[in-house]
Design goal:
single chain, 383 residues, alpha+beta, Phosphorylase Kinase, domain 1, Transferase(Phosphotransferase), domain 1, 2 domains, two-stranded antiparallel sheet, 11 helices, disordered C terminus
Length: 383
């Protein structure tokens, strides 16, 4: 079937239908789009010609700018590379998926711009940046426990919609705290569907282009490219632990025996010391039963075996108290833990190697500089 395109054009936009748009129409098959098409002039006006002061982030395929439309609407403009084939795929994926999706816990796509060499996506602007910036940086915001629990539940609902309720059945592939944005009321909204892939015809496949973030990727996906919605479930489990602890899974190494936050949480659970995981900024104003619930669900979600992970609708029901959480979390074997943390161990080893090389390089430069200074001094002595 030919693509059915509904693009609402302003008077200024009527000049927009060019060859790039026709190519774009041809590229989308069987997807009905309902969105605004902006001109490049409109986007440049909104972002003050992509002024550096309006840059609010850097995604996997390019920068993100804050902008204001003529009617006062604040937007976030994602600028993709038109030179990259991967960027073009990203653009088509985002257009064909996000435009069809409407959910309170998903970032809304207002429209797009395809003009000259520009590929642009125009999203709703969210006031409070990402969950990562609030949890891991010196943020003006302080998330109390009820807010954190509500954020966890909201992310779960958004993923359940993507996996099970949406007709498109989308696997996000890069769920992490950076890709969870917060609105003015601190409601969570999942962003960045550039890595999402439609799975209408098959529920599992081997991906030849693994895309994600180390520390959040499920082992079967990181090691073998085996992708199902259970990969998102695993990533979600990591985000739950980060929300409870206020610590970044990738940058937190509590001891030589734990490679990351998830590893440490597993040890704490086995030793019955899960309270050590709780963010100290929360103080005593917490619901210990809810904390225990979140941690148990997180450990279920991050099982090394995909079949042992719950689906996201079950996670929502567990968090809402509609179904019981298993008393016993499946204990991971040494082999399973090796699989879960292999990518992280390799990542840390690579980072250590890079630091060692940098140190050696700096030492070499220092020695050469000192030798140069000594030579100069010696020359001066005999002048």
């Amino acid at each position: 079937a030919n693509a059915m395109i509904r693009i609402y054009l302003s008077q200024e936009n009527t000049k927009f239908c060019n060859s790039s748009l026709l190519i774009f129409w041809t590229a989308l098959n069987g997807v009905e789009l309902q969105m605004v098409c902006f001109t490049l002039k409109q986007i440049k006006t909104a972002t003050k010609n992509f002024d550096a002061s309006n840059k609010i982030g850097e995604g996997g395929f390019g920068p993100v700018y804050k902008g204001q439309l003529l009617d006062g609407t604040l937007v976030a403009v994602k600028q993709l590379s038109s030179q990259s084939k991967q960027g073009n795929r990203e653009f088509l994926n985002e257009i064909s998926t996000i435009s069809c999706l409407q959910h309170p816990n998903l970032v809304k796509l207002h429209g797009c711009c395809i003009e000259a060499d520009q590929l642009l996506l125009v999203y709703e602007y969210l006031d409070n940046n990402s969950l990562a910036s609030v949890l891991f940086e010196n943020s003006r915001l302080n998330l109390d426990w009820p807010t954190r629990f509500r954020i966890c539940l909201g992310i779960a609902r958004g993923l359940a919609f993507l996996h099970e309720e949406s007709s498109l059945k989308i696997v996000h592939r890069d769920i992490k705290a950076t890709n969870v944005l917060l609105d003015g009321q601190l409601n969570p909204k999942i962003s960045d569907f550039g890595l999402a892939r439609l799975t209408e015809d098959e529920k599992t496949h081997i991906s030849t282009r693994v895309a994600g973030t180390i520390g959040y990727m499920a082992p079967e996906y990181a090691l073998w490219g085996y992708l199902t919605d259970k990969a998102d479930v695993y990533s979600f489990g990591v985000v739950l632990l980060e929300t409870v602890s206020g610590k970044n899974n990738n940058n937190y190494m509590p001891s030589h025996t734990s490679i990351c936050l998830l590893d440490w949480a597993c040890h704490l659970h086995l030793s019955g010391s899960i309270e050590e995981l709780i963010d100290q900024r929360l103080g005593s104003d917490i619901n210990k039963q809810e904390v225990e619930k979140i941690v148990k669900v997180a450990l279920l979600c991050t099982s090394a075996t995909p079949s042992l992970r719950p689906i996201m609708s079950e996670v929502v029901s567990m968090l809402e108290g509609r179904i019981a959480i298993p008393d016993e979390i499946p204990e991971a074997s040494t082999y399973s833990n090796d699989l879960r943390f292999k990518a992280m161990k390799d990542f840390h080893q690579e980072r250590q190697n890079q630091k060692l090389i940098q140190t050696q390089t700096q030492n070499t430069i220092t020695i050469r500089t000192d030798m140069g200074s000594s030579s100069a001094s010696t020359t001066n002595m005999f002048d």
